[in-house]
Design brief:
It is a single chain. The relative contact order is 0.18. The chain has a single domain, classed as Rossmann fold, CATH 3.40.50.300. The protein is α/β, with parallel strands linked by helices and 252 residues long. It contains eight helices and twelve strands. The strands form three sheets. A six-stranded mixed beta sheet has the order 6-9-10-3-11-12, sandwiched between helices. The chain binds adenosine-5'-diphosphate and magnesium ion (MG) (2 copies). One magnesium ion binds next to loops.
Length: 252
């Protein structure tokens, strides 16, 4: 079985004011097919964890490790991480001017698989995935995320997820800024990916709302760069009722 293992991870970020320590010893193990929700207040380091897994150059891993089936992810380039089966849906997806969505998807698929997808089946697959995400076909020929609304960008992230078929996906606040209809469509896409490829998911969210559609097996509460508490889905219901106050008071 495939496993993504994060051990005693310490991460700092380079800012204009110098280096700032953000993650202070994170431990988290995700097996393929499991859905883990990482919940926590703003500024607790959730996106930093996502970036550290993806290999963002601004985030420095000071100590600890991230392994995928025993291989040290921290020694891999961003490209190698994607090839190894890691995927990040960003909280703020970036625009790529001059690159159409369809070119981007085909190039990414080719890079990850090490060979070009067979053109006819690929086109069908892209169209099918777009339809299921209720994306108009014109989005294929538009530049990646350029001029997309917040919700359209989030759908586009899930389109990549469904087509690239990673082993593990980190979804960073994929729910934020979505209305109920879009939330359902995006969640269905995530659930399809989970079911069809036994995807392991790290679902980062501030709100419990998305957990009505995507059912986590485990919930981890993030406070001040650490996992403050963990449990099953019942922990999410508790947070829905009580919010993060209890953890914030404890953290001070
Ligand atoms: P979350 O995703 O939980 O809201 P983040 O990981 O984005 O939290 O941020 C954690 C803390 O690190 C925040 O205080 C944030 O301001 C700070 N931080 C993260 N990235 C940067 C950056 N590039 N420059 C300056 N501060 C940063
Ligand atoms: Mg499962
Ligand atoms: Mg964040």
């Amino acid at each position: 079985m495939s496993t993504l293992k994060i051990e005693d991870l310490h991460v700092s970020v380079d800012t204009d004011q110098g280096t700032k320590q953000i993650l202070r010893g994170v431990d988290l193990t995700i097996n393929k097919g499991e859905i883990h929700a990482v919940m926590g207040p703003n500024g607790s380091g959730k996106s930093t964890l996502a970036y550290a897994i993806a290999g963002h150059p601004k985030y420095t891993v000071d100590s600890g490790s991230i392994t995928l089936d025993g291989e040290q992810v921290l020694d891999m380039t961003v490209d190698q991480r994607a090839k190894a089966g890691l995927f990040l849906a960003m909280q703020y997806p970036v625009e790529i001017p001059g690159v159409t969505n369809s070119n981007f998807l085909r190039t990414a698929k080719t890079a990850i698989d090490g060979e070009q997808p067979a053109i006819r089946t690929w086109i069908k697959e892209v169209r099918g995935a777009m339809e299921k995400l209720r994306m108009d076909s014109s989005f294929a020929e538009r530049n990646v995320n350029e001029g997309f609304s917040g919700g359209e960008k989030k759908r586009n992230e899930i389109l990549q997820l469904e087509l690239l078929k990673p082993k593990f996906a980190v979804l960073d606040e994929t729910d934020s800024g979505l209305d109920v209809d879009a939330l359902k469509i995006v969640s269905e896409g995530v659930n399809r990916a989970h079911q069809s490829t036994d995807l392991g998911i790290l679902l980062i969210t501030h709100y419990t709302r998305i957990l009505r559609y995507i059912k986590p097996d485990f919930v981890h509460v993030f406070v001040a760069g650490r996992v403050a508490e963990e449990g099953g889905p019942e922990l999410a219901s508790q947070l829905e009722d009580e919010g993060y106050d209890r953890f914030l008071t404890a953290a001070v």
